[in-house]
C-alpha cells in the first residue's frame, strides 16, 4: 500500500509553516507577521487559506490580530486552551470526580514547590490573605468574600510554585472546575463553612510554607482536599434528595 | 463609560454558538452539523465566517471535517492541544526543568491512583512490561527497545489511573517532553542504564501497585523521578563540556 503524499488541508500547512518558525525561534513574542497578501504570495496559497490558518492560531492564543495594524505573535495559554477542554470534557461525559482528582494532582505538588520556593514577600502576601480569612471567621460571614479569598489563596500558591507550565495547566484545570463545578465552592462553603474547615486548614498550609516544610505543606493540603471531596459529595447528595 | 456591545469577531460568535450547544448537551459526539450553507443562513453570517469557525473547531479536535460527507462532532484532545502548548512553551522561553517538574506533578499522583485502582488484568499487563525489562538487563541492551518499554510502562500507569482528564493532561505533558527533551530518555538510558536504575526502580513501582500500596508506589516513583532529574542534568552538563 502506498502512503498518502499529503492529506493535510491547505490551512493546516499554513499553520505548520508559522508554527515551525515559532518552534525554531525565528518568530518571537511581539513580532509582526507579513500581511495576509504577502503571506499568500510567499506560500503560494489563497488568502482564504491564510486567513483560516491565522484564525486558528488566533484562537489558540498564539497570534493577536489587531484590526488595522496586523497580526502579531503573542502567547496567551489561557485563551488558547480553556474552551476546547470544556467541550471535550462534556463530550466525554466527564464527572466532577474527574475534575476534583485532576485538581488534587496539581494542588498537592504545587504546595510542595511553594514551600521550597516562597520568598519572604510571597509569605507576606499569603499571610495577608490568611489574615482576611481570619477576620471573616469573626463576623457574620459573607459568602462572596469567602469564595474570593479561597480562590485568591489557591492562585497565589500556584504562582509561588514559580513554574509557568504548572501554572498554565493549573489554570486550565481551574477553568474546568469553575465551568462545571461552578457552584462547588459556594455549596461547600454554605454547608461546611466553619473556622476549622476553612480558616484553620488554610492557615496550616500557610504556616508549613512559611516554615519551608514541603512534606507538612503536602499533608495539610491533602487533608484540605479530602474535606473538599467529601463535602462536595455530601452537598451534592443532599441536593439530590 | 459604556461597555462595548460586541467586540467579538464573527467567526468567534460562530464558535460560541456551536460550543454552547455542545456544553448544553444538544450536540453530542458523532452528530453531524448542518451544511455550511445552512449554518450560514441560520446564523445569518457569511459562509467564510462559518468556515473560519469550523476550521478552528477542527483544529481544536472538536469537529471532524470529512470531505464530501460534512462536519461531525468528535472529541480528540490529543490533536487539539499539543501544538499550541509547544508554541507557547517556546514563546515563553521554557526550560527542561519546567517540563520535568510538570511531569513529576502527574507521575506522582498517577501512581497513587493506579495503586488504588489497578485490576488483576492491569497488574498482569504491567508485569509483562516489567518482564520484558528484566530480559533486557540480561542481554546486551538495545536502546530503542529500552526507550519503548519505558514509555509503555509510564503510559500504562496513567491508563490504570482511570481518569481520562488526568490522562489527557498527562499526554499533553508527554508531548512537550518528547518535543523538547526528545532525546531525554535516550541520553539518560545511554549514560545511566543499569539494572538498578531502570529495571529495579520500575519493578519496585510495579510491586507497590500490585500490593495496592499507594504510599509506597508514590515513594518509589519519587525516587525514580529524582534519578531522572539528576541524570538528565548530568547528561546535559556532560554534553556542554
TrEMBL record, chains A, B:
Pfam families: FCD, GntR. Signal peptide: none annotated. Keywords: DNA-binding, Transcription, Transcription regulation. Residues 8-76 form the HTH gntR-type domain. It comes from the Bacteria. CDD domains: WHTH_GntR. Gene3D superfamilies: GntR ligand-binding domain-like (1.20.120.530), Winged helix-like DNA-binding domain superfamily/Winged helix DNA-binding domain (1.10.10.10). SUPFAM superfamilies: GntR ligand-binding domain-like, Winged helix' DNA-binding domain. PROSITE patterns: HTH_GNTR. This is FadR/GntR family transcriptional regulator.
Amino acid at each position: 500500500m502506498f502512503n498518502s503524499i499529503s492529506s493535510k488541508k491547505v490551512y493546516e500547512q499554513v499553520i505548520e509553516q508559522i508554527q515551525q518558525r515559532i518552534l525554531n525561534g525565528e518568530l518571537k513574542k511581539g513580532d509582526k507577521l507579513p500581511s495576509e497578501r504577502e503571506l499568500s504570495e510567499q506560500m503560494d496559497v489563497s488568502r482564504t487559506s491564510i486567513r483560516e490558518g491565522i484564525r486558528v492560531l488566533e484562537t489558540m492564543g498564539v497570534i493577536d490580530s489587531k484590526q488595522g495594524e496586523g497580526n502579531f505573535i503573542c502567547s496567551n495559554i489561557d485563551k488558547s486552551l480553556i474552551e476546547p477542554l470544556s467541550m471535550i470534557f462534556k463530550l466525554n461525559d466527564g464527572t466532577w470526580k474527574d475534575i476534583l482528582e485532576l485538581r488534587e494532582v496539581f494542588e498537592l505538588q504545587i504546595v510542595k514547590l511553594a514551600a521550597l520556593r516562597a520568598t519572604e514577600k510571597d509569605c507576606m502576601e499569603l499571610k495577608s490573605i490568611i489574615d482576611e480569612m481570619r477576620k471573616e471567621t469573626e463576623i457574620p460571614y459573607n459568602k462572596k468574600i469567602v469564595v474570593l479569598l479561597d480562590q485568591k489563596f489557591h492562585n497565589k500558591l500556584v504562582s509561588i510554585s514559580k513554574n509557568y507550565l504548572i501554572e498554565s495547566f493549573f489554570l486550565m484545570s481551574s477553568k474546568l472546575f469553575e465551568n462545571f463545578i461552578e457552584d462547588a465552592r459556594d455549596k461547600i462553603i454554605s454547608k461546611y463553612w466553619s473556622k476549622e474547615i476553612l480558616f484553620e486548614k488554610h492557615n496550616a498550609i500557610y504556616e508549613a510554607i512559611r516554615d519551608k516544610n514541603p512534606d507538612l505543606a503536602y499533608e495539610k493540603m491533602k487533608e484540605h482536599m479530602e474535606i473538599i471531596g467529601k463535602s462536595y459529595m455530601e452537598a451534592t447528595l443532599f441536593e439530590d434528595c
